[in-house]
Specification:
By secondary structure, the chain is α+β, with helices and mostly antiparallel strands. Helices cover 32% and strands 22% of the residues.
């Protein structure tokens, strides 16, 4: 079945974007707790605005964490180290308010691997009800949709150059957006336009910024998809000096489409950052991605989307749905794929934690440039044994 020619656009944001500042603070606190106590229960939300950081949520842990130190070190690492970087929001002068408390015992008894009145059995249960999605596509080596991967690559290169000190006028806040035209065969045919906004110092000219960014974009995006018709929009307001949490407020979990599939695959109801793996918002979404990636890598479909649903306190999902490429590119019957997935993977919270090693302090690595783009994260690593089971289909 031939597809229609269409354009799909996705965006990414840099680590200095206010929402990503909040995400990285939350994940840094999570990792600090897990480093000392792998059994930590963490649900940390962060709000940043001007010279203020507000922490809120629930943490139950044996770890002794200096939350203020973690916050300041994270802000410094991003690039808002001193007043020279940002006179309002910086690691030295920011004011921190802590509203963290312990996890509700009513939630804890549902999650804990023990019997409790009204709970079904003694297995570890899901930390909340909810739906989680996973997606994979053979458009890129990462098995991710092309538009969001291209947007991430621009932001990653911009961060590399800024941290290296090669371009002294770059500042931490930035955004990118890439529009990709898909041909009648359903494959990326060309890049229609690229939008990049980057924070900068007062001293640099707009012409210099635009020349630098266009050169950077051409360096990191596939040359065969760029042509003389590709449009470049660089700092389209003409000026971006005031940025980061000084220019806008930031909140944990507000960039969930950037974190996942750029809108190409669906997203469930919950964000990821600041949550330990007992929260199936995070672990369930990671598991679904892992499974979808195996299905595509096994050659069973060009695209795969998976949905899992949970009830709080219950170990087994209340539903599992696999939708293998609705455009008809599956190479075997969908029922056969579902059977192999159920044979190879368990979606119980304790099993997901064990299979992916989610009780380790690894989550700061996931915060920026997409949670499904880094080959060394466990939910991105293919398991040969599970791959073999799927290939039997």
């Amino acid at each position: 079945m031939m597809k229609t020619v269409h354009i799909f656009t996705s965006e990414s944001v840099g680590e200095g974007h206010p929402d990503k500042v909040a995400d990285l603070i939350s994940d840094s606190i999570l990792d600090a707790c897990l480093a000392q106590d792998p059994a930590s229960r963490v649900a940390c939300e962060t709000l940043v605005k001007d010279g203020h950081v507000v922490l809120a949520g629930e943490i139950t842990t044996l770890a002794q964490v200096d939350y203020e130190q973690v916050v300041r070190e994270t802000i410094r690492e991003i690039g808002y180290a001193t007043a020279e970087d940002d006179e309002v929001f910086n690691a030295q002068s920011v004011q921190i308010v802590n509203y963290l408390s312990e996890q509700s015992p009513d939630i804890a008894q549902g999650v804990d691997a023990r019997e409790a009145e009204g709970k079904e059995g003694a297995e570890q249960g899901a930390g909340d009800q909810g739906i989680m999605f996973g997606y994979a596509s053979d458009e890129t080596p990462e098995l991710m949709p092309a538009p969001v991967m291209f947007a991430h690559r621009i932001m990653q290169e911009l961060a590399r150059v800024r941290h290296s000190g090669e371009v002294p006028w770059l500042r931490p806040d930035s955004k990118s957006q890439v529009a990709v035209e898909y041909g009648a065969d359903g494959r990326p045919a060309r890049i229609v336009n690229v939008v990049v906004s980057t924070q900068h110092s007062e001293q640099v000219s707009l012409a210099e910024i635009r020349a630098f960014i266009i050169d950077l974009v051409k360096r990191v995006l596939p040359a065969e998809l760029l042509n003389e018709e590709t449009e470049f929009f660089v700092n389209p307001t003409g000026r971006f000096v005031v940025g980061g949490p000084h220019g806008d407020s930031g909140l944990t979990g507000r960039k969930i489409i950037v974190d996942t599939y750029g809108g190409m695959g669906r997203h469930g109801g919950g964000a990821f950052s600041g949550k330990d793996c007992s929260k199936v918002d995070r672990s369930g979404a990671y598991m679904c991605r892992w499974v979808a990636k195996h299905v595509v890598a096994a050659g069973l479909a060009n695209r795969c989307e998976l949905q899992v649903a949970y009830a709080i306190g219950k170990a087994s999902p209340v539903s599992i749905m696999i939708d293998v490429d609705t455009f008809g590119t599956a190479s075997v019957d969908e029922s056969e794929i579902i059977a192999r997935v159920k044979e190879a993977f368990s979606f119980k919270p304790a099993d997901m934690e064990a299979a992916l090693g989610l009780r380790r302090p690894i989550f700061r690595r996931s915060t920026n440039y997409g949670h499904f783009t880094k080959a060394d994260l466990p939910w991105e690593v293919l398991d040969p044994a599970r791959l073999a089971i799927l290939k039997r289909a």
